[in-house]
């Protein structure tokens, strides 16, 4: 499962590149924006699908709701984040991982693990 603030088409391309989705797979029911997910009638059932899921253009409230629903369903949830907007979901997750070269101190306060790593820029 990928939850990102990135634009939908960019996020879909990255998910295909890293193997979350196959190159020719129909992902119309597996790739939603955060706002689209909030309008789904049975959110828990949507999250129970097997295979990859993508939530793009996700705002902090969307990330928190997805984490909350997963935990409520008995899942152990790990969340990564690289900005202060990720702090609420990191705090709510069972495992919060703050990432980034410098990060923000607020983010590191809410995380359970702190990885300061350099991320190579890609063509995306």
Class inferred from helices and paired strands: alpha/beta
Average pLDDT confidence is 84
Distance between the termini: 19 Å
Strand order of the largest sheet: 1-3-2
Q: Which CATH first-tier class of the largest domain would you pick? A: Alpha Beta
**How many E-type strands?**
6
The residue fraction in helices comes out at 25-40%
Give the C-alpha Rg: 14 Å
Provide the CATH architecture of the largest domain: 3-Layer(aba) Sandwich
Question: Could you list the spans in which at least 5 consecutive residues all have pLDDT below 50?
Answer: 114-124
Please outline what is shown here:
This protein has six helices and six strands, in the order βαβααβαβαβαβ.
Describe this structure in words.
- With 124 residues, this protein is of the alpha/beta class.
- The chain has 2 domains: 1-75, Rossmann fold (3-Layer(aba) Sandwich); 76-124, no CATH class.
- Helix content is 37%, strand content 16%.
- It is built from 6 helices and 6 strands.
- The chain has helices spanning 8-18, 34-38, 43-47, 60-72, 87-92, 105-110; strands at 2-3, 31-33, 54-56, 78-81, 95-99, 113-115.
- It has a 3-stranded parallel β-sheet. Strands 4-5-6 form a 3-stranded parallel β-sheet.
- The chain is globular and about 35 Å long.
- Mean pLDDT is 84; it is low at 114-124.
